[in-house]
Amino acid sequence: MADPVEHGITANQANSLRHGPDERGHFGGWYGGRFVAETLMPLVLELEQAYNAAKADPSFQKELDFYLRDYVGRPSPLWFARRMTEELGGAKIYMKREELNHTGSHKLNNVMGQILLARRMGRTRIVAETGAGQHGVATATVCALFGMKCVIYMGATDVERQSPNVFRMRLLGAEVVPVTAGAGTLKDAMNEAMRDWVANVADTYFLVGTVAGPHPYPAMVRDFQSVIGEETKEQMQAAEGRLPDVVVAAIGGGSNAMGIFHPFLDDSSVRLIGVEAAGCGLDSGKTAASIERGRPGVLHGNRTYLLQNADGQIDEAHSISAGLDYPGVGPEHSWLSDIGRAEYVGATDTEALDAFQLCTRTEGIIPALESAHAIAYAAKIAPTLPKDTLLVVNISGRGDKDIFTVAEHLGVKL
Amino acid sequence: MSRIAARFKSLAAEGRGALIPYLEAYDPDLETSLALLKAMPAAGADLIEVGMPFSDPSADGPVIQAAARRGLKAGATLPGVLAMVAEFRKENAETPVILMGYLNPIEAYGYDRFCTDAAKAGVDGLIIVDLPPEEADVIEKPAEEAGLDIIRLVAPTTSDERLRYVLSHASGFVYYVSITGITGTRTASKHDLKEALPRLRAATDLPVAIGFGIRSPEQAATAASIADGAVVASVLLATLAETLDADGKATAETLPRVLEQIRDLAAAVRADVPAADQTA
């Protein structure tokens, strides 16, 4: 029997949590939006139109599927982490292996979608921001693949702590511009990338790396990352014949989490847990936990939870992981937190370092420090859950880039 | 009639455009920036833009970024900026003051309370860089009730169709961002400006001021003659920065040098015949 249809959508669709944002780009009527200078507004509107047209064009999806399979290497496996499960003695832990993608993280899923879109739009120059360098490497990679000019803005602090990725980007032909403003981290790189975009509107495409920024970026990046959750759903069905009970993912801007959460939003039995970087501790004043310790405000084109002072000045975030070291979070996460559909928790630098070693030792998988935050929380709750609980943790990236940071914290000189 | 409307009307009667200099509040400290604000009208400022420092000024170039950092370091807060304007208003009832900045500090302050307090302090208009009309419903009503103009930026990238939409949300005057870029970098040619103005005039009866990239007295005179006003910001902040000592503190040169530059700009804007154009 057909659903009653009103305003072109069915009652079932209206009850779904998967239809956001609204036409203004708002999630839940408040988060998200388009808070950019007038010079950029026409570009943001053009991008939205171009994305909608691409989404409706089967040839675009076909092209994307081809590159995802033969270049990115999808689907990524869902791995049963037997030894970690046994060691923790509780929930059955599965790992979604996004670190096996080409370039070593989930970032390429989104970048591949956006570079194909940029090509459709006739843009020839790509700018992007990067924190840990994973998004920068992914962007530089597709620019090499398609022969496009690539400029990556990266905080000077991050350039230092992620030097292998800087070298990779330069090998791939990208210009890496260190940003010295502020604390020289992801927030400052984002400001500088926006300044570049506003100055080079005619030929430049701003390739945002996470589910933040002005509409349509949060929705578009989420759509491109949702392949993670869609595969997880199918793979868990094949492995266990049912949905997972718990899905855990790390959150900086939140693109790997949004990608694995989104296909499960309407499956109310599935607990969704986003793990923010608590840094030195949630109440230490040195944290990147925007949802847990921030409040809503406007930065970088969207309204979302932000770490800020009483006067609305944005605070510097802190995390051992450069990829999570950002004082904001994607607006859809802010909404999911407010309505209680997803839980947001923190893992400290120390907990992430422990989890980094646990995963490496028990599974032979060296995770990115970003992903280690998710593993840390999964390892914390797994022993408290029944043995038939199915828990998926998203291994969003591999940790080769982090071995220097980890060695330093463990007191080892390389 | 609002201060802004009254000022543009009287300048039109004089047959010249407005000089609109910019200062960043609390740059490099409250005392200096307040003294500068108070001295600007006598130096030839017709309207004044006061920058509200923000930690992440993503539409601004290096010069305004540095000024904002100095302001924040000196303790700038939104209540502090409003108090500064109130202090200025004790001495000056005619010169319009426009606050320019980013949305988040205003959202943190609270829209209703901010508009009420800003009007009470003697603020006449607001330019909020990252608030396009699509999102402006949060502040339009309280601003109108408080009698504050919302000054809209329009850019070379703004299409004719969008121009009508943007201007339907504008009041006070229209700020034409003459280049695609951040503040204080490129400069538009006289030719570009002459092409752009008829498009704006066709879409609005509001006065039009040109900003972004105006550095010299000649450029200011050109802009003020083609349009109704010229906004000059980065070059003044750069001069101020040059006069600071090694610790970033104001020196005896700070006020005189910035004011001298404003006087030069004002003289060019007021000259009967605009000086030889050097930008075409």
Keywords:
heterodimer; A: 414 residues; alpha/beta; Rossmann fold; 2 domains; 6-stranded mixed beta sheet; 4-stranded antiparallel beta sheet; globular; B: 280 residues; TIM Barrel; 12 helices; 9 strands
Q: What order do the strands of the largest sheet of chain B run in, or round the barrel if closed?
A: 5-4-3-2-1-9-8-7-6
Distance between the ends of chain A: 66 Å
The CATH homologous superfamily of chain B corresponds to Aldolase class I
- The number of helices of chain B is 12
Radius of gyration of chain B: 17 Å
Radius of gyration of chain A, in angstroms, nearest whole number: 20 Å
CATH fold naming of the largest domain in chain A? Rossmann fold
Helix content of chain A: 40-55%
GO molecular function (chain B): tryptophan synthase activity
Function (chain B): The alpha subunit is responsible for the aldol cleavage of indoleglycerol phosphate to indole and glyceraldehyde 3-phosphate.
EC number (chain B): 4.2.1.20
Enzyme class (chain B): lyase
Please outline what is shown here.
The complex is a heterodimer of chains A (414) and B (280). Chain A has 414 residues and is an alpha/beta fold.
How would you characterize the overall build of this protein?
The complex is a heterodimer of chains A (414) and B (280). By secondary structure, chain A is an alpha/beta fold. Chain A folds into two domains: 32-70 and 106-216, 3-Layer(aba) Sandwich (Rossmann fold); 76-104 and 226-410, Rossmann fold, CATH 3.40.50. Chain A has 17 helices and 16 strands. In chain A, the strands form four sheets. Chain A has a six-stranded mixed β-sheet with strand order 5-6-16-11-12-15, with helices on both faces. Chain A has a four-stranded antiparallel β-sheet with strand order 3-4-14-13. Helix content of chain B is 49%, strand content 13%. Mean pLDDT of chain B is 94; it is low at 273-280. Chain B starts with a helix and ends in a 10-residue tail after the last helix. In chain B, α2 runs parallel beside α12, α6 (111-121) runs parallel beside α7 (137-146) and α9 packs parallel to α10 (217-226). Chain B has helices spanning 3-14, 30-43, 62-73, 78-89, 103-109, 111-121, 137-146, 160-167, 190-203, 217-226, 234-243, 254-270; strands at residues 18-24, 48-51, 97-101, 125-128, 149-150, 152-154, 174-177, 208-211, 229-232. By secondary structure, chain B is α/β, with parallel strands linked by helices. Chain B has a nine-stranded parallel β-sheet with strand order 5-4-3-2-1-9-8-7-6. The A-B interface holds A 24, 33-43, 181-182, 187, 190-191, 194-195, 198-202, 297-301, 306, 308, 310-314 and B 54-61, 65, 72, 77-78, 102-109, 129-132, 134-135, 152-159, 162, 166, 177, 180-182, 185-186.
